[in-house]
Amino acid sequence: MAAPTTPQDLALPEPAPSSGGASQTFKDLFSGAAGGIAQVLIGQPFDIVKPSTKEPSPPSSASAPASQSSSAPSTTPAATSNPPSPSQSQLSYSQYYSAGAFAGVANSVLSGPIEHVRIRLQTQPHGPARLYSGPLDCVRQLVRQGGFTHGLYRGQAVTLIREAQAYGLWFLSFEWLMNSDAKRNSVDRKEIPSWKVALYGGLAGEALWLGSYPFDVVKSKMQTDGFGQGQQRYRNMRHCFAQVWRQEGMRGFWKGLGPTLLRAMPVSAGTFAVVEMTMRAIN
């Protein structure tokens, strides 16, 4: 999908030059880390409850397929990645999208295997029938059954696409909403009230999922698939897309979207609000 271009009527006056350098980089990283912590604290209860809302089909062996569990990019997008921090230099909206997409590609290196392990642990049976004793045991079994490429990093191609699209839309939507508000009300970005920052962050989270959810469905199906002949249903990303389309049609790519959007609003709102408020405080 082509990145949106910059509407001229929404462009802000060029802001004052920032101090730049290592100090500003540290502030950006610190604000992003604070937002990541807030994201995990807000999103964790949803992540615990979410798998139980799926129709279970527990596997009977370590190689059997588990039930689907949709997950956010790095748990929306998880603490494995810093959320976008407010920039003090004016960029075009296509550049905002590109920055987010590149961040998503970098993030996918970690988010792919981390989410794979998390989904396996969350969808395994309870009690004596459980398959994995913990994250490390899950990693060992995945590597033993499929190696790094087809085991631990299963579904990595579609994860990379999902992360690029999701982060690109996340960055783009938030910056467009913030810039539009500042332009409309003739105020500086830092004067936008915190409740609006949270609202725009939440709306950006909705845009993230609306633009990337089908990729997440395919990723989840591949990462809950079994191993070995007779157990593995999807050969690769393309085959999984084809199977979902053939068996469920377009509706199959949007199953579970409602609960995901409900989760995305508070998580993304809290993340952006903390990032923005932290940046204002330390600047």
TrEMBL record:
Biased composition (Low complexity): 60-91
InterPro entries assigned to the protein according to its UniProt record, in alphabetical order: MCP_dom_sf, MCP_transmembrane, Mitochondrial_Carrier
Mapped Solcar repeat ranges: 91-180, 193-281
SUPFAM superfamilies hit by this protein: Mitochondrial carrier
Record's subcellular location: Mitochondrion membrane
Domain of life from the UniProt record: Eukaryota
Membrane-protein topology: Multi-pass membrane protein
Region (Disordered): 1-27, 48-91
Keywords assigned by UniProt, alphabetized: Membrane, Mitochondrion, Mitochondrion inner membrane, Repeat, Transmembrane, Transmembrane helix, Transport
Family designation: Belongs to the mitochondrial carrier (TC 2.A.29) family.
UniProt name for this protein: Carrier protein ymc1
Native organism taxonomy: Eukaryota, Fungi, Dikarya, Ascomycota, Pezizomycotina
Gene (UniProt): YMC1
